[in-house]
Amino acid sequence: MKDLFNISKQELAAAQIVQWGYTEQLEPTTYQQFLGWIDQNLHGPLKYLADERKTKRQSLKEVFPECESALVFLFDYRKAKKFQEMQDPLFKVASYTTGFDDQDYHYWIKEKLEKIGKKLKTHFGDLEFKITLDVHPVLERDLAQRSGLGWFGKNSMLINQEFGSYNLIGSLLLTQKILVTKASLEVDHCGSCNRCILACPTNAILDENRSIDASKCISNFTIELFKDEAPPVGYPANSHEIFGCDICQEVCPWNDKSLKKVTDLPESKMVDFFNRELKDIYQNIEVMSNREYKEFFKHTSFERTGKKGFLKNLKYYLER
User: Fold this and answer.
1) With DSSP H G I counted as helix, E B as strand and the rest as coil, what are the percentages for the chain, rounded to 5?
2) Which sequence positions are flagged as catalytic?
3) Would you list the domain boundaries of the chain?
4) Rounded CA gap, 17 and 170, in Å?
Protein backbone atom coordinates (compact mmCIF):
# COMPACT_ATOMS: atom_id res chain seq x y z
CA MET A 1 0.00 0.00 0.00
CA LYS A 2 1.38 3.38 -1.00
CA ASP A 3 1.43 6.59 1.03
CA LEU A 4 -1.43 9.03 0.51
CA PHE A 5 0.21 12.45 0.24
CA ASN A 6 1.18 13.33 3.84
CA ILE A 7 -0.50 10.20 5.27
CA SER A 8 1.89 7.28 5.75
CA LYS A 9 1.31 3.58 5.15
CA GLN A 10 1.61 3.07 8.92
CA GLU A 11 -1.20 5.55 9.64
CA LEU A 12 -3.43 3.92 7.06
CA ALA A 13 -2.68 0.46 8.46
CA ALA A 14 -3.54 1.67 11.98
CA ALA A 15 -6.98 2.58 10.62
CA GLN A 16 -7.25 -0.99 9.21
CA ILE A 17 -7.06 0.37 5.68
CA VAL A 18 -5.36 -2.19 3.45
CA GLN A 19 -5.79 -0.52 0.09
CA TRP A 20 -7.11 2.67 -1.44
CA GLY A 21 -8.02 3.80 -4.94
CA TYR A 22 -9.01 6.92 -6.83
CA THR A 23 -11.48 7.75 -9.58
CA GLU A 24 -12.80 10.77 -11.45
CA GLN A 25 -15.65 8.77 -12.98
CA LEU A 26 -18.68 10.01 -11.06
CA GLU A 27 -21.37 7.83 -12.68
CA PRO A 28 -21.62 4.14 -11.76
CA THR A 29 -21.34 1.59 -14.54
CA THR A 30 -24.02 -0.68 -13.02
CA TYR A 31 -26.80 1.87 -12.43
CA GLN A 32 -29.13 0.36 -15.06
CA GLN A 33 -28.60 -3.10 -13.57
CA PHE A 34 -29.45 -1.64 -10.17
CA LEU A 35 -32.71 -0.19 -11.53
CA GLY A 36 -33.58 -3.54 -13.10
CA TRP A 37 -32.89 -5.29 -9.79
CA ILE A 38 -35.28 -2.89 -8.04
CA ASP A 39 -37.94 -3.28 -10.76
CA GLN A 40 -37.87 -7.06 -10.20
CA ASN A 41 -38.41 -6.43 -6.47
CA LEU A 42 -35.22 -8.33 -5.66
CA HIS A 43 -34.35 -5.78 -2.97
CA GLY A 44 -36.96 -7.47 -0.74
CA PRO A 45 -37.07 -5.89 2.73
CA LEU A 46 -34.51 -3.21 1.83
CA LYS A 47 -37.20 -0.64 1.02
CA TYR A 48 -34.83 2.30 1.46
CA LEU A 49 -33.08 1.28 -1.77
CA ALA A 50 -36.24 1.92 -3.80
CA ASP A 51 -37.41 5.20 -2.25
CA GLU A 52 -36.66 8.73 -3.47
CA ARG A 53 -32.92 8.10 -2.97
CA LYS A 54 -32.91 5.59 -5.83
CA THR A 55 -32.24 8.27 -8.46
CA LYS A 56 -29.46 9.83 -6.38
CA ARG A 57 -27.34 6.76 -7.00
CA GLN A 58 -26.94 7.67 -10.68
CA SER A 59 -24.10 10.11 -9.94
CA LEU A 60 -21.91 11.21 -7.04
CA LYS A 61 -22.97 14.78 -7.87
CA GLU A 62 -26.48 13.88 -6.71
CA VAL A 63 -24.98 13.26 -3.28
CA PHE A 64 -22.33 15.99 -3.31
CA PRO A 65 -22.91 18.57 -6.10
CA GLU A 66 -19.35 19.91 -5.83
CA CYS A 67 -17.81 16.46 -6.29
CA GLU A 68 -15.00 16.15 -8.86
CA SER A 69 -13.33 12.92 -7.72
CA ALA A 70 -13.35 10.24 -5.04
CA LEU A 71 -10.87 8.40 -2.84
CA VAL A 72 -12.08 4.94 -1.87
CA PHE A 73 -10.71 2.85 1.01
CA LEU A 74 -10.94 -0.82 1.99
CA PHE A 75 -11.24 -1.34 5.77
CA ASP A 76 -10.02 -4.80 6.70
CA TYR A 77 -11.69 -7.17 9.18
CA ARG A 78 -9.93 -10.44 8.32
CA LYS A 79 -8.41 -10.66 11.81
CA ALA A 80 -11.89 -10.79 13.33
CA LYS A 81 -12.87 -13.59 10.97
CA LYS A 82 -9.77 -15.61 11.78
CA PHE A 83 -10.30 -15.07 15.51
CA GLN A 84 -13.87 -16.34 15.22
CA GLU A 85 -12.73 -19.42 13.32
CA MET A 86 -10.14 -20.22 15.99
CA GLN A 87 -12.69 -19.74 18.77
CA ASP A 88 -15.26 -21.79 16.84
CA PRO A 89 -18.25 -20.23 18.65
CA LEU A 90 -21.43 -22.25 19.03
CA PHE A 91 -23.47 -19.51 17.37
CA LYS A 92 -22.24 -17.26 14.60
CA VAL A 93 -22.37 -13.53 14.06
CA ALA A 94 -21.10 -11.86 10.88
CA SER A 95 -17.40 -11.24 11.38
CA TYR A 96 -17.57 -7.54 10.49
CA THR A 97 -19.55 -7.00 13.71
CA THR A 98 -16.45 -7.69 15.81
CA GLY A 99 -13.84 -6.48 13.36
CA PHE A 100 -13.53 -2.91 14.59
CA ASP A 101 -12.98 -3.16 18.35
CA ASP A 102 -16.53 -4.53 18.62
CA GLN A 103 -17.87 -1.16 17.44
CA ASP A 104 -20.51 -0.61 14.79
CA TYR A 105 -18.27 -0.12 11.76
CA HIS A 106 -20.09 3.07 10.76
CA TYR A 107 -18.62 4.85 13.79
CA TRP A 108 -15.15 3.44 13.22
CA ILE A 109 -14.93 4.19 9.51
CA LYS A 110 -16.45 7.64 9.80
CA GLU A 111 -13.91 8.62 12.47
CA LYS A 112 -10.98 7.36 10.38
CA LEU A 113 -12.20 9.05 7.20
CA GLU A 114 -12.75 12.31 9.05
CA LYS A 115 -9.10 12.31 10.15
CA ILE A 116 -7.88 11.48 6.65
CA GLY A 117 -10.07 14.20 5.14
CA LYS A 118 -8.74 16.84 7.52
CA LYS A 119 -5.15 15.87 6.73
CA LEU A 120 -5.87 16.18 3.03
CA LYS A 121 -7.35 19.64 3.62
CA THR A 122 -4.09 20.78 5.24
CA HIS A 123 -2.22 19.45 2.21
CA PHE A 124 -4.46 20.95 -0.50
CA GLY A 125 -5.78 24.03 1.28
CA ASP A 126 -9.09 24.77 -0.42
CA LEU A 127 -10.20 21.15 -0.81
CA GLU A 128 -13.52 20.12 0.74
CA PHE A 129 -14.76 16.58 1.23
CA LYS A 130 -17.81 14.51 2.06
CA ILE A 131 -17.73 11.09 3.72
CA THR A 132 -19.85 8.33 2.23
CA LEU A 133 -20.62 4.94 3.74
CA ASP A 134 -23.20 2.28 2.93
CA VAL A 135 -25.92 4.41 4.56
CA HIS A 136 -25.63 7.00 1.77
CA PRO A 137 -27.25 6.76 -1.69
CA VAL A 138 -24.07 5.64 -3.44
CA LEU A 139 -23.44 2.37 -5.29
CA GLU A 140 -20.33 1.86 -3.19
CA ARG A 141 -19.11 -1.43 -4.65
CA ASP A 142 -19.36 0.08 -8.13
CA LEU A 143 -17.37 3.08 -6.85
CA ALA A 144 -14.71 0.77 -5.41
CA GLN A 145 -14.55 -1.17 -8.67
CA ARG A 146 -14.14 2.07 -10.66
CA SER A 147 -11.27 2.90 -8.31
CA GLY A 148 -9.47 -0.31 -9.21
CA LEU A 149 -10.06 -2.06 -5.88
CA GLY A 150 -11.59 -5.30 -7.10
CA TRP A 151 -14.32 -7.03 -9.08
CA PHE A 152 -17.87 -8.16 -8.35
CA GLY A 153 -17.95 -11.75 -7.18
CA LYS A 154 -20.82 -14.03 -8.11
CA ASN A 155 -22.24 -13.35 -4.64
CA SER A 156 -22.33 -9.62 -5.60
CA MET A 157 -19.59 -8.70 -3.12
CA LEU A 158 -16.47 -6.76 -4.05
CA ILE A 159 -13.48 -9.11 -4.09
CA ASN A 160 -9.92 -7.81 -3.94
CA GLN A 161 -7.23 -10.09 -5.37
CA GLU A 162 -4.93 -9.61 -2.35
CA PHE A 163 -7.41 -9.06 0.50
CA GLY A 164 -10.49 -11.00 -0.55
CA SER A 165 -13.91 -9.71 0.52
CA TYR A 166 -13.52 -9.43 4.30
CA ASN A 167 -13.43 -5.66 4.08
CA LEU A 168 -15.81 -2.70 4.15
CA ILE A 169 -15.84 0.33 1.87
CA GLY A 170 -15.61 3.96 2.91
CA SER A 171 -15.06 6.93 0.61
CA LEU A 172 -14.17 10.60 0.51
CA LEU A 173 -15.86 12.63 -2.20
CA LEU A 174 -13.58 15.53 -3.10
CA THR A 175 -14.24 18.98 -4.58
CA GLN A 176 -11.20 18.83 -6.86
CA LYS A 177 -9.22 16.39 -8.94
CA ILE A 178 -5.89 15.42 -7.42
CA LEU A 179 -2.67 14.14 -8.90
CA VAL A 180 -3.11 10.43 -8.32
CA THR A 181 -2.48 7.73 -10.88
CA LYS A 182 -5.84 6.19 -11.68
CA ALA A 183 -5.74 2.41 -11.36
CA SER A 184 -6.89 0.18 -14.19
CA LEU A 185 -10.06 -1.81 -13.66
CA GLU A 186 -9.54 -5.25 -12.12
CA VAL A 187 -10.56 -8.15 -14.34
CA ASP A 188 -12.94 -10.85 -13.17
CA HIS A 189 -11.08 -13.64 -11.36
CA CYS A 190 -14.07 -15.81 -10.42
CA GLY A 191 -13.93 -17.81 -13.63
CA SER A 192 -16.00 -20.99 -13.50
CA CYS A 193 -15.98 -21.15 -9.68
CA ASN A 194 -19.48 -21.29 -8.20
CA ARG A 195 -18.75 -22.29 -4.61
CA CYS A 196 -20.66 -19.34 -3.15
CA ILE A 197 -23.75 -20.17 -5.20
CA LEU A 198 -23.73 -23.81 -4.14
CA ALA A 199 -23.03 -22.98 -0.49
CA CYS A 200 -25.91 -20.52 0.02
CA PRO A 201 -28.57 -22.61 1.80
CA THR A 202 -31.44 -20.31 0.80
CA ASN A 203 -30.48 -19.98 -2.89
CA ALA A 204 -30.24 -16.21 -2.55
CA ILE A 205 -27.38 -15.74 -5.05
CA LEU A 206 -28.41 -15.01 -8.63
CA ASP A 207 -25.55 -16.11 -10.85
CA GLU A 208 -26.83 -14.59 -14.07
CA ASN A 209 -26.29 -10.98 -12.97
CA ARG A 210 -24.06 -11.26 -9.89
CA SER A 211 -26.69 -10.07 -7.47
CA ILE A 212 -28.85 -11.53 -4.73
CA ASP A 213 -32.51 -11.96 -3.95
CA ALA A 214 -32.54 -9.96 -0.72
CA SER A 215 -35.75 -11.60 0.48
CA LYS A 216 -33.87 -14.93 0.64
CA CYS A 217 -30.64 -13.58 2.16
CA ILE A 218 -29.86 -14.74 5.70
CA SER A 219 -28.13 -11.44 6.52
CA ASN A 220 -31.25 -9.48 5.66
CA PHE A 221 -33.49 -11.82 7.64
CA THR A 222 -31.33 -11.55 10.77
CA ILE A 223 -30.48 -7.84 10.55
CA GLU A 224 -33.15 -5.98 8.57
CA LEU A 225 -36.31 -7.71 9.83
CA PHE A 226 -37.19 -6.76 13.40
CA LYS A 227 -40.54 -8.55 13.84
CA ASP A 228 -41.36 -12.24 14.17
CA GLU A 229 -41.79 -13.90 10.80
CA ALA A 230 -40.79 -17.10 9.07
CA PRO A 231 -37.19 -17.33 7.84
CA PRO A 232 -36.46 -17.87 4.14
CA VAL A 233 -36.83 -21.41 2.83
CA GLY A 234 -33.62 -23.33 3.42
CA TYR A 235 -32.57 -21.29 6.46
CA PRO A 236 -29.97 -23.61 8.03
CA ALA A 237 -30.68 -25.53 11.21
CA ASN A 238 -27.09 -26.45 11.93
CA SER A 239 -24.78 -23.55 11.00
CA HIS A 240 -26.27 -21.22 13.63
CA GLU A 241 -26.24 -17.78 11.98
CA ILE A 242 -27.85 -15.51 14.56
CA PHE A 243 -26.75 -12.13 13.20
CA GLY A 244 -25.66 -11.68 9.60
CA CYS A 245 -24.05 -14.41 7.54
CA ASP A 246 -20.58 -15.18 6.17
CA ILE A 247 -21.37 -18.45 4.39
CA CYS A 248 -20.74 -17.24 0.84
CA GLN A 249 -17.48 -15.59 1.95
CA GLU A 250 -16.28 -18.62 3.91
CA VAL A 251 -16.17 -20.81 0.81
CA CYS A 252 -14.52 -18.23 -1.48
CA PRO A 253 -10.99 -19.32 -2.53
CA TRP A 254 -9.83 -15.69 -2.55
CA ASN A 255 -10.73 -15.37 1.13
CA ASP A 256 -9.05 -18.66 1.99
CA LYS A 257 -5.87 -17.39 0.37
CA SER A 258 -6.14 -14.00 2.09
CA LEU A 259 -6.84 -15.35 5.60
CA LYS A 260 -3.64 -17.39 5.53
CA LYS A 261 -1.68 -14.12 5.63
CA VAL A 262 -3.29 -12.99 8.90
CA THR A 263 -1.17 -13.44 12.03
CA ASP A 264 -1.82 -11.37 15.17
CA LEU A 265 -5.42 -11.60 16.30
CA PRO A 266 -7.57 -9.27 18.44
CA GLU A 267 -9.84 -10.51 21.18
CA SER A 268 -13.54 -9.75 21.19
CA LYS A 269 -15.97 -9.44 24.08
CA MET A 270 -18.84 -9.95 21.66
CA VAL A 271 -17.47 -13.29 20.43
CA ASP A 272 -17.11 -14.35 24.06
CA PHE A 273 -20.69 -13.24 24.79
CA PHE A 274 -22.10 -15.45 22.02
CA ASN A 275 -19.81 -18.42 22.62
CA ARG A 276 -22.12 -20.28 25.03
CA GLU A 277 -25.36 -22.20 25.12
CA LEU A 278 -28.17 -20.54 23.18
CA LYS A 279 -30.65 -20.73 26.06
CA ASP A 280 -28.20 -18.78 28.21
CA ILE A 281 -27.79 -16.09 25.57
CA TYR A 282 -31.57 -15.93 25.10
CA GLN A 283 -32.31 -15.68 28.82
CA ASN A 284 -29.60 -13.07 29.27
CA ILE A 285 -31.19 -10.84 26.61
CA GLU A 286 -34.80 -11.66 27.48
CA VAL A 287 -34.52 -10.27 31.01
CA MET A 288 -33.10 -6.98 29.72
CA SER A 289 -35.47 -4.07 29.24
CA ASN A 290 -35.35 -2.40 25.82
CA ARG A 291 -33.32 0.39 27.38
CA GLU A 292 -30.90 -2.07 29.00
CA TYR A 293 -30.50 -3.87 25.67
CA LYS A 294 -29.64 -0.59 23.92
CA GLU A 295 -27.20 0.32 26.66
CA PHE A 296 -25.49 -3.08 26.67
CA PHE A 297 -25.07 -3.14 22.88
CA LYS A 298 -24.53 0.60 22.50
CA HIS A 299 -22.31 1.53 19.52
CA THR A 300 -22.17 -2.10 18.37
CA SER A 301 -23.83 -3.58 15.28
CA PHE A 302 -26.25 -5.50 17.51
CA GLU A 303 -27.93 -2.28 18.57
CA ARG A 304 -29.62 -2.16 15.16
CA THR A 305 -32.13 -5.00 15.60
CA GLY A 306 -33.26 -3.99 19.06
CA LYS A 307 -34.11 -6.58 21.69
CA LYS A 308 -37.17 -7.94 19.86
CA GLY A 309 -35.36 -8.40 16.56
CA PHE A 310 -32.46 -10.22 18.15
CA LEU A 311 -34.69 -12.55 20.17
CA LYS A 312 -36.46 -13.40 16.89
CA ASN A 313 -33.14 -14.67 15.51
CA LEU A 314 -32.36 -16.73 18.60
CA LYS A 315 -35.87 -18.16 18.89
CA TYR A 316 -35.57 -19.93 15.54
CA TYR A 317 -32.82 -22.24 16.88
CA LEU A 318 -34.41 -22.63 20.32
CA GLU A 319 -37.67 -23.88 18.89
CA ARG A 320 -36.16 -26.50 16.62
Assistant:
1) 40, 15, 45
2) 134
3) 9-77+102-174, 195-318
4) 10
